[in-house]
Specification:
With about 500 residues, the chain is α/β, with parallel strands linked by helices. The chain folds into two domains: about 5-370 and about 465-500, TIM Barrel (Alpha-Beta Barrel); about 370-460, no CATH class. Helix content is about 40%, strand content about 10%. The strands form two sheets. Strands 9-6-3-2-1-12-11-10 form an eight-stranded parallel sheet. A four-stranded antiparallel sheet has the order 5-4-7-8, with no helix packed on it.
Length: about 500
């Protein structure tokens, strides 16, 4: 039996907001002059102050790894690295790690160019007497993160060298990681590799500073760990034996889900499936190292698509139709036993939405993992619906909606009048307006943890949703602005948390 984390043993409440959705009131630049997104700079600290003032104790976010062109945090090029676009250049300037004179104006240039200029400035700085302490910290970081950092830096440099082409299209000697070829290319790409190492040191340094600040204010960071990793990632390239690939590095099978609430045709994610037999043979070392990194970043972790540990939807590698897949058993019990043996009290939340079987729930309950309850899923006319508050469990995490849902205002606006009446009737015919009616219902739940998306706290409509599953346009780009935050918002939240005994 797993040891239950203290974070799940008292009533708490939090907010769901990805850091890219933060405002950017400092020197923020969008990649290639596109829209600027939030960073780990001043606005992140302002946000911590806001949620602390409101009495919230949890800040949940999406995966924080470097993304590909579609910006999906669930298709990262690394299971360990941080997204360099979250780095605050102003933070580096204020710390003196880079000099303003060295980082030229990036007007008309890309954010990547600005960071690479910053890397040059950084390496100059750490060679000075003034930078000796930072140089030691950088060397310590490199040593501690060596188990993933070397491969990631080289992989990222090679992706640039080959104009973003997937690793399975690289020359055979690099695709198959020939030692001689790898040594030669490291020398050739040294300046690019050095810049990437600097970016990761900057990210982890800024992250730890923000986490320390949040923790000091009683705020815990809640991360999100996708069960699968992207095919075009440092992890798959560096450790191909852990994945179901052919001799050329192409996926033999890929992940997805059958038709469900989110998509009538199912979803084809394209992530290569794990070679679970190989992973189990060495005690799941790949996963244990992955958890090590995540536990450095977060106080608690959601495992996305938890049901894949009991059985996963296997789609033929050459097929683009998710409906052609089949369920295949996974060694979930052995995997979770290994995780809890190494990390007692591992603070995991299981994302158990979608097609969930009794076997999946038995696995989750065996390790006493909190599941997810979503209020927007509750009102389908079935009084046994587990998402209805009278069916909630204390151990589960309650949401009004998730990043894959519409905002509560948007959701409510799409309901038929009869459906809206059902919601109102269930909520004691309250005259409260949406989204506060659903927010209060979530906070009143017996579920010990309740999480509200920032869009709902801001009363925003469906034009502000984060993601629409099954589509590729306009996802992952939403940001809020400080003028959307009513002066009375923190106090309103605090009063509700007091009423429902969730005050931090």
């Amino acid at each position: 039996m797993a040891v239950i984390s203290p974070l799940f043993q008292r009533r708490t409440a939090g907010v769901l907001l990805h850091p890219t959705s933060l405002p950017c009131s400092e020197s923020c630049w969008g990649e290639n002059n596109k829209k600027a997104f939030g960073t780990l700079g001043k606005d992140a600290y302002y946000f911590v102050d806001l949620i602390a003032q409101a009495g919230l104790t949890i800040w949940q976010m999406l995966p924080t790894g470097p993304t590909q062109a579609d910006m999906s945090p669930y298709q990262s090029i690394s299971a360990h690295a941080g997204n360099p676009n979250l780095i605050s250049l102003d933070w580096l300037l204020e710390k003196g790690w880079i000099r303003a004179g060295d980082v030229q104006s990036v007007s008309g240039k890309s954010l990547t160019s600005a960071r690479h200029q910053g890397a040059i400035s950084f390496y100059k700085f750490i060679e000075t007497e003034e930078g000796a302490q930072v140089r030691q910290a950088f060397q310590n970081f490199f040593s501690q993160q060596h188990y993933w950092l070397d491969d990631f830096a080289l992989f990222s440099a090679l992706r640039m060298e080959f104009d973003g082409a997937s690793w399975n299209t690289w020359p055979a000697e690099l695709r198959k990681r020939d030692n001689s070829a790898m040594n030669e290319i490291r020398i050739k790409l040294k300046s690019t590799i050095d810049a990437i190492l600097f970016e990761q040191f900057a990210f982890f340094s800024q992250w730890q500073a923000l986490k320390d600040y949040a923790n000091q204010k009683g705020i815990f960071l809640f991360g999100d760990m996708p069960i699968f990793v992207g095919h075009d990632s440092a992890d798959v390239w560096a450790q191909q034996h852990y994945f179901q690939l052919d001799e050329e590095g192409n996926p033999l099978t890929v992940a997805g889900v059958p038709p469900d609430y989110f998509s009538e045709k199912g979803q084809h994610w394209g992530n290569p499936h794990y070679a679970w037999d190989v992973m189990e043979a060495d005690g799941f070392q790949w996963w244990l190292l992955r958890l090590r990194t995540q536990l450095e970043l977060f106080d608690l972790i959601r495992i996305d698509h938890f049901r894949g540990f009991e059985a996963y939807w296997e789609i033929p590698g050459k097929s683009h139709d998710a409906r052609l897949g089949k369920w295949v058993k996974a060694p979930g019990e052995a995997f979770l036993k290994a995780c809890f043996e190494v990390y007692p009290g591992l603070p995991l939340v299981a994302e158990n939405l979608g097609v969930i079987t009794d076997e999946v729930e038995a696995l989750r309950n065996q390790f006493e993992l909190p599941g997810m309850l979503v209020m927007q899923f509750a009102f389908d006319g079935n009084t046994n619906n587990p998402h209805l508050p009278h069916n909630h469990n204390r151990s589960d995490v309650v949401y009004t909606g998730t990043h894959d849902n519409d905002t509560t205002v948007g959701w409510y606006g799409t309901l038929a009048d009869s459906h809206r009446q059902q919601v109102k009737q269930y909520c004691f015919n309250s005259t409260d307006e949406m989204p506060w009616l659903l927010i209060e219902a979530a906070l009143a739940s017996v579920g010990r943890m309740a999480i509200i998306p920032m869009q709902d706290f801001l009363e925003l409509d469906g034009g502000h949703r984060m993601n629409m599953p099954g589509t590729t346009d306009k996802n992952w780009v939403w940001t809020f602005s400080w003028d959307q935050v009513e002066p009375t918002l923190a106090e309103r939240i605090r009063q509700l948390l007091t009423t429902y005994h969730r005050l931090g």
